[in-house]
Every structure is written in C-alpha cells, then in structure tokens.
Amino acid sequence: MNGFRFEKTPQALFLDRDGTLIFDKDYLHDPEKVELVAGTREAVRRALDAGCLLFLLTNQSGVGRGFFTMRDYEACHRRLVELLGIRAEDFAACGVAPEAPDAPSRYRKPSPAFVLEQLAAFPRLDPARCWMVGDRKSDWQTGLNAGIRSAAVATGKPIDDDARAFLRGNAVPLFENFAAFADAAFGGKNQTPAG
Ligand SMILES: [Mg+2]
Asked: What is the strand order of the sheet 130-134 is part of?
C-alpha cells in the first residue's frame, strides 16, 4: 500500500499509453499486439462513469524515426478503443507526438502544451483535480510542468532508484497499475497500490 488518499475525485486524467494502459512493446505498430494491462478496461469504465474526462497523451517517436507511420498508430488506437470497450469519443482529446526526440515538437512529453491547451478548452477543470498518469519520468514531469498532479504506475519502465527519488521528491504517488490508481481515485475494492 502506498497509503495515498485522494482528497477530491479527479475531474480529468491525462493518460500515457505504453506501459500504462497497454504493455510497452517497443515501437508498437501492429494492432494485433495491443495488449491491455490487467484491470485497465474496468478502470477506464469506472473513470468515465464517475464523469471524469479522459485524455490520451503519447510520445510516438517511432513515427519520426521512420519505423512506422501515423496510419499504423491510428490502427493501434482503434484496437485500443475496441479493447477498452469504449467509443473513440470517450477520449475527450488525444495528443500524439510523432517526432523523434531531437526534433522540435509541440506535444512531446515532458512538454505541458497539450495539457495546458485542454485546461483552456475545459475551463471548469480544476488543475488540482487533474492527473497525468504514466510510467516514466517524462510523464510525471509533464504533469508538474503543466501545474496538475502526477501519478506513477509500475507496469512499464522499471521504477529504479532514480525514479523513486523523483517520485519522493515531487510527491508523486506510485500505484501498482492503472486499476489500482482508479480504485483509489474513484473507489472500489481490490485497492492495492504499490509500495
Ligand atoms: Mg509510457
């Protein structure tokens, strides 16, 4: 248990894809290989039922590196939506950064641009009740850069000492997986955040 308690129910989640909603398969471009992390479908449903806005924010440098195309990305996204059992429009907006790491990019995490644009588009959102959820420091830094909260999940990049120090130093809670985050945020049994 990480002992983290949400003071208020989140109004919006900015969700990383690889290593958070689905398993991180390097440069995923085959829809057949999209694989949900256990409990994610139910967790997404719980968030939507709670009236929480869902956004997707994903770095896809494989496009900029020439490994696959946006068409491949979009095919994988359709498969993700299908596996989640939601409608495409259940994501209020999706931010995709297809650039290679060394190329100029508006949305590539840890850029806060996408989050800030959505906060402007949905003025009812209280930044203190908006969360960036992801498996990497670039995700957590995105939330911090945008002035919202960040949460970590342990289903992607291994949480090493450096990551742990970052989480501790920035009061970013760590959860076993997205389902555990949703249990803590929206209520539910099987509440098993990571330590
Ligand atoms: Mg990730």
From this structure: 91-97, 53-59, 12-15, 130-134, 149-153, 174-175
For the four alpha carbons of 112, 173, 89 and 101, in that order, the dihedral sign comes to positive
Question: Residues 62, 101: contact at Cβ < 8 Å?
Answer: no
Per-residue model confidence as pLDDT tens digits over 1-57: 577 999 999 999 999 999 999 999 999 999 999 999 999 999 999 999 999 999 999
Looking at 16, 24, 135, 183, which residue is catalytic?
A: 16
For residue 21, how far is its CA from the centre of ligand 1 (angstroms)?
A: 9
State yes or no: is 126 an active-site residue: no
Distance from Cα 101 to the centre of ligand 1, integer Å: 14
Is residue 73 domain-resident? Answer: yes
Distance 49 CA to ligand 1 centre (A): 24
Do the domain assignments include residue 101?
A: yes
Domain of residue 22, CATH code: 3.40.50.1000
Q: Which residues span the domain enclosing 93?
A: 12-186
* Candidates 18, 24, 135, 183; catalytic one: 18
Residue 135 CA to ligand 1 centre (angstroms): 5
**The pLDDT of residue 194:** 45
Regions of the chain with pLDDT less than 70 = 1, 188-195
Does residue 30 carry a catalytic annotation?
no
What is the tally of structural domains in the chain? Answer: 1
Q: 160 lies in a domain?
A: yes
- This prediction has a pTM of 0.95
